[in-house]
């Protein structure tokens, strides 16, 4: 039972890392799946398979390498010199992603709380800084609470959509976008999210160490991501094309359920954005601290300040511009990790880790 509980914690942390600003708001689901019409569910299935397969590989390989940060994994995949350069590129990409997360929080404040966009950025920044002082334990605790509640609400929203007059729109929706673009989309989406998730999955896999726990957590987490994607896609499809005008389309759908459920859902969207921001900034902080030996608190505040400046461009523009570009950059990483099958020379097999030891590492 302890091992199962640990697997579920791994799964929720995996889901919470992927389900960030774009996913929770619905904007990302729209960009990569819903706009392709009836192809959407098939594209989601392909992405789900990659999340299960590659998510497990990243965590298992990290445990085998005893990797301290994602740079250790990249050096294994690309070689010492190239791996360092890949990590530099990933640092820039992760900063861009975190700027999108912060901008998503600002959009929630401005669209749904009648507060200024800048207030949302500043409040989220300082809350993130305070929580990060507690490390990986705080990330796991937040996701263990937020992810199951978010999944429940998203599924509830999907079932409510079945009563909508256009609930079957996803079955016959058409798209003028090229089929080549459609079938490239799940690879871009999975490659982008999995390569970005390294910031959390690498230290998580290294901390847990138990292959059975990690493999099971990847299966539960990957399938959970697929279910959330499908639920979001069905709900958004019923409101196409008018829903495309909103920065937080899932928040608009929640408004149809009544005031209380709308506010609860908006809070959950914010918490998903916040949990992913916290997790990614934590991974970046570990990476830079290992290299520069500067105080982690100083590094964290510097990273958040950079994200604040980039967030001035706005959530919708950042997401629709940066995510597809970052997805293309991630395809090379995705190709290499799918081919990696062997333990690096000189590294012995990792001994079995007991449940008590795995839990103590967190």
TrEMBL record:
Species whose genome carries this gene = Cohnella yongneupensis
The record ties this protein, via InterPro entries, to:
YkvI-like
Does this entry carry the keyword Transmembrane?
A: yes
Listed A to Z, the keywords are: Membrane, Transmembrane, Transmembrane helix
Q: Looking at the keywords, is Nuclease present? A: no
User: Could you tell me the superkingdom of the organism this chain comes from?
Assistant: Bacteria
Transmembrane spans: 36-56, 85-109, 115-132, 139-160, 180-205, 217-240, 260-282, 294-315, 321-338
Name assigned to this protein: Membrane protein YkvI
């Amino acid at each position: 039972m302890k091992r199962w509980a640990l697997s579920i914690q791994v799964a929720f942390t995996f889901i919470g890392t992927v389900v960030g600003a774009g996913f929770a708001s619905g904007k990302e689901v729209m960009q990569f799946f819903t706009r392709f019409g009836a192809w959407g569910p098939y594209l989601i299935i392909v992405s789900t398979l990659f999340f299960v397969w590659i998510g497990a590989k990243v965590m298992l390989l990290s445990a085998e390498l005893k990797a301290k940060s994602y740079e250790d994994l990249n050096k294994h995949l690309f070689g010492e010199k190239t791996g360092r350069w890949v990590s530099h590129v990933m640092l820039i990409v992760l900063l861009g992603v975190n700027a999108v997360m912060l901008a998503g929080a600002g959009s929630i404040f401005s669209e749904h709380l009648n507060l200024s966009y800048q207030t949302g950025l500043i409040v989220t920044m300082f809350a993130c800084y305070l929580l990060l002082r507690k490390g990986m334990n705080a990330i796991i605790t937040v996701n263990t609470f937020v992810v199951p509640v978010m999944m429940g609400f998203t599924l509830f929203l999907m079932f409510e959509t079945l009563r909508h007059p256009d609930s079957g729109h996803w079955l016959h929706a058409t798209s003028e976008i090229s089929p080549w673009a459609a079938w490239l989309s799940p690879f871009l989406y999975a490659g982008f999210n999995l390569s970005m998730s390294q910031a959390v999955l690498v230290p998580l896999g290294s901390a847990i160490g138990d292959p059975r726990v990690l493999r099971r957590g990847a299966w539960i987490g990957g399938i959970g991501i697929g279910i959330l994607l499908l639920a979001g896609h069905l709900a958004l499809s019923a409101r196409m094309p008018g829903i495309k005008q909103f920065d937080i389309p899932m928040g608009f759908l929640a408004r149809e359920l009544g005031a209380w459920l709308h506010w609860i859902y908006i809070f959950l969207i914010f918490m998903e954005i916040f949990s992913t921001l916290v997790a990614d900034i934590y991974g970046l902080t570990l990476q830079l601290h290992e290299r520069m030996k500067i105080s982690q608190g100083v590094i964290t505040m510097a990273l958040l300040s950079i994200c604040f400046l980039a967030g001035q461009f706005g959530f919708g523009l950042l997401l629709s511009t940066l995510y597809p570009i970052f997805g293309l950059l991630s395809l090379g990483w995705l190709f290499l990790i799918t081919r990696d099958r062997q333990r690096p020379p000189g590294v012995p097999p990792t001994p079995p880790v007991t449940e008590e030891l795995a839990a103590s590492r967190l």
